[in-house]
């Protein structure tokens, strides 16, 4: 089966597309959804993706930037563009980056699967082993967690809670928390804090950034609380960490 990722900042559109039976009929496994190109890149780093169906207008990293990145770094991935009428010229630019199709919104499913069928006929289908029931269950959990991780990596600078992400993957907060911990050996909050501290360490290398600015850029409005969490995680205060960088 080919693995597909759907990229659209409209959650209703992406989940509706993901749920269509026509994918299974074509041996396409829609492994997840992403809200922008930044999240899609995280998926690409962690899953072997064969096809991407992407909207053109999205925050952080739009579909054109994503298509260009794929063209330059992962040209085997087949890209299909979605966009509204008013974005035709913008979306047309993506075709020079070898996008395989261009679908207008609202999506005509016959047109969409016509493009999919054409791609299927023209390109070689990768060979994958068919997973067992146990492997499917584990893979489902891993993809839920991967979806959460991609979201966190793209939105760590904003307020994020376990409840928010659980809602995004359509699970209860408690159940999703259990799956996340069992899959990653970290609680959701531990993972979120670690990502924020890793980003903070990178930002501290810039001597022009003040500590309160770094605090805000990694999702903490209270600089004192940021300092407390940084010291708890890294064993040093942000100031001590920065001094260590510039004295070694």
Q: Helix fraction?
A: 55-70%
Number of helices: 13
First CA to last CA: what distance? 51 Å
Main beta sheet: strand number and arrangement?
Answer: 5 strands, parallel
Residue stretches low in confidence (pLDDT < 50, at least 5 long) are: none
Query: Order of helices and strands, N to C?
Result: EHHEHEHEHEHHHHHHHH
> What structural category characterises the helix and strand content?
alpha/beta
Q: What's the average pLDDT?
A: 91
**Strand order of the main beta sheet, please?**
2-1-3-4-5
Beta strand %: 5-15%
Q: What is the overall shape?
A: globular
How many E-type strands?
5
Radius of gyration: 20 Å
Please describe the structure with a list of short key phrases separated by commas or semicolons.
248 residues, alpha/beta, five-stranded parallel β-sheet, globular
């Amino acid at each position: 089966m080919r693995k597909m990722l759907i990229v659209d900042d409209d959650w209703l559109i992406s989940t509706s597309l993901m749920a269509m039976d026509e994918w299974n009929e074509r041996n396409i496994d829609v492994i997840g959804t992403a809200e922008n190109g930044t999240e899609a890149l995280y998926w690409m780093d962690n899953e072997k993706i064969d096809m991407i169906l992407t909207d053109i207008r999205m925050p952080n990293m739009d579909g054109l930037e994503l298509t260009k990145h794929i063209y330059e770094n992962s040209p085997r991935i087949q890209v299909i563009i979605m966009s509204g009428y008013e974005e035709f010229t913008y979306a047309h630019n993506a075709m020079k980056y070898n996008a395989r199709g261009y679908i207008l919104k609202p999506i005509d499913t016959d047109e969409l699967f016509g493009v999919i069928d054409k791609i299927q006929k023209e390109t070689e289908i990768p060979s994958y082993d068919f997973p067992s029931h146990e492997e499917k269950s584990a893979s489902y959990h891993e993809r839920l967690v991967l979806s959460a991780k991609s979201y966190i990596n793209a939105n760590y600078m904003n307020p994020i809670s376990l409840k928010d992400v659980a809602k995004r993957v359509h699970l209860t907060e408690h159940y999703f928390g259990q799956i996340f911990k069992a899959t990653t050996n970290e609680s959701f909050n531990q993972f979120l804090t670690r990502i924020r501290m890793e980003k903070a360490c990178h930002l501290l290398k810039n001597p022009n950034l003040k500590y309160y600015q770094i605090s805000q850029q990694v999702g903490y409005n209270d600089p004192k609380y940021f300092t407390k969490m940084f010291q708890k995680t890294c064993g040093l205060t942000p100031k001590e960490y920065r001094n260590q960088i510039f004295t070694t």
